[in-house]
């Protein structure tokens, strides 16, 4: 296109008049500060390229703790510290391999062991594959599962416009597929990756074993190889040799990294903003959740740069161990409860560094309505919907234990599952401006909640 | 993130109740058809990879005409034809080069000649560079312009959330910079690329000469090299040798490619949907405007697949020559006027294959209000704002000549100027689902306008 420009105005017939209010001016100042001077993109480059993957217990995670502490200090936190918690320590233990034997031809399949999975042992597991498209089909085939590798080929439903709904629909096969197959004597499982991307990158992510059943190894498979396996299995049997090495080491020590801006009026009342510092190991954790980490640090930097002094104490939290345990989020809420802290609001960014569209919220209907009344102040920056029934994983223990209202930034979802838990969740797949607009919106909402409460 | 799913609902306090209406059901059917069976992504692959760049008058453009005609026929058009128009025929004529001489070191700068620019001649133009940051600064330096190469280093303003506003603000330097410099005896111009991307790819695009002034060559420069040039010029003089070969051949013949679904009630009243078939030459024109082309074809395919029979005749138009002449759009409107056709509405997709957010509209306040009343039907699919003061370039002559209300799909703008008119406007930078959601929304709006008029 060559033509000039378009100005968007939101013409809601019932728009509340916030025009030129003190709040709209302050939010414009926040946006200008971040869009002109943000360090979010540079911080993300540093975190992803100089530290990289940072699964709980890995050297990368400990490097990230120190990096995060320094970043919060340098961004102007009044205080910053490490909050100790026990974390699980799962290791991949080597390269994951799957070789299919199809009509005497060997074909390597692109797989990755699921997090928390046991390994196959060095000799691997070799067995014929039984494909099922659902747990219901597993039941109908229960007598033919024993001694086999079970291939769960349940697809994302493309008609869910919000791709997180497709994930919510399909992820039970990653979470529970192994134990369901073990119940009928399956030896291992191959799960179609949680994605509808056009590439073949397999997506890891955690599984949960039913501890009353044998633990069997599980891998995710790339979508192209899943479709290949499916097409071959329609006509002939396929033997697969799986080799994985995942195992747990003893629980170890990790830390939430916390920075604070002390409140001027209510220093003993807390507003939390955070993301999670750990990431899966195939790549750099750029969207998941490097984006949330640098959003959190950027809000602090911008508040300090603007000389903004919050009424409540604002906590900037880089949570430990979201991916395979949530121990950081649980610890944070436990300590808050023990100390009888009052937590006014907690906001997480853990849905990627994409263009913001809204928030999900967990709290009362009245609180939701109050948040929604601010949409006219936020819509210029991309936020037009705030929905109930949500909130971020790391802040969910605050909701459960202290009834804190919680929310999560909800950016555009279309590309998230192209990158989530794969080898291409890298810095290069994050757009600088989309990332910065996330920080703008998070800062704006924190400003409003601090000013007006919830 | 590992957690399950979030459901977004739009909670507008004044939401019109369209729930479960006939329209919401039909739009859901359209969305399901496209999200499940779209050919948009495959068509885009075919157009970009098998035809590629398709500047007016180039072999690629004529290949694209035949490709488009076949695609419209195969997608079920009742009629499809080529509408002849005269088109300009500018050719790049070879590789564009710029070599800076900085303290006796030679440094190649990443440049691309602007469209419509004259060339430097085979020996090139060698001169010292004068940097200006605005036309105002050009005026203050008017006495030192003669015999120099003028470097317009006007940056995109990052505080415009909608990046098209930054483009609208900066593009005058690309459009008019050459003639403004020629007025004071400048020999050539280097224009900072119309972008705020993080890479160094230069962005072409058309310039317009003031025919009362000498025509001097113009190139765009990548942002990193622009910043380098700026930093060096603060301390020392820089000589640049520019070599470009652009020139016009005589006007030639091109065609709008048109398909039609004949209306059941008002066959002589037209609704147009289109994009432009031509593209700049450095790459494949994937977002600009392959996306709009495959949106257009996809709407036809989906309507046929659903057995939808429009009341009005719907024209699916692949316009010729948007980029450096708009001759296709002008011809289309001229013929409509000559034949005294009644055009009810015209909609363009020419802002890339990104996640939809709204429409820009050109028409009356009452028409805008009617369109906005449909937002509750569209918001689930991403459209939440419809703004006045817009409409697509190719449909603007319909507005000017026939007072047709016009609109343009307005996807998220953050990434558009990373790709626009550069070597990386390629298929790989288009996300399948984002592209498909554009088609969903365009089809939904056409359905509503066909049913209710405007």
Structure commentary:
Two copies of one chain form a homodimer. Chain A is of the alpha/beta class and 454 residues long. The first copy, chain A, folds into two domains: 22-89 and 250-452, Aminopeptidase (3-Layer(aba) Sandwich); 93-245, 3-Layer(bba) Sandwich (Glucose Oxidase, domain 1). Helix content of chain A is 35%, strand content 24%. The first copy, chain A, has 14 helices and 16 strands. Chain A has an eight-stranded mixed beta sheet with strand order 1-10-12-11-13-16-14-15, with helices on both faces. Chain A has an eight-stranded mixed beta sheet with strand order 3-2-9-5-6-7-8-4. In chain A, strand 2 (97-102) and strand 3 form a beta hairpin. In chain A, helix 1 (22-37) crosses helix 8 (286-305), helix 8 packs across helix 14 (432-452) and helix 9 (327-338) runs parallel beside helix 12. Chain A is elongated. Chain A starts with 21 loop residues before the first helix and ends with a helix. Residues 3-19 of chain A have low confidence and may be disordered. The interface between A and B is large, with 75 and 75 residues.
Helix content percent band of chain A: 25-40%
| Mean pLDDT over the residues of chain A | 95
Question: Could you give me the name of the CATH homologous superfamily of the largest domain in chain A?
Answer: Zn peptidases
Shape of chain A: elongated
Strand-residue fraction of chain A? 15-25%
Report the span from N to C terminus of chain A: 44 Å
Rounded to the nearest angstrom, the radius of gyration of chain A is 23 Å
CATH architecture of the largest domain in chain A: 3-Layer(aba) Sandwich
CATH topology of the largest domain in chain A: Aminopeptidase
What's the level 1 CATH class of the largest domain in chain A? Alpha Beta
Order of helices and strands of chain A: HHHEEEEEHEHHEEHEEEHEHEEHHEHEHH
Largest sheet of chain A: 8 strands, mixed
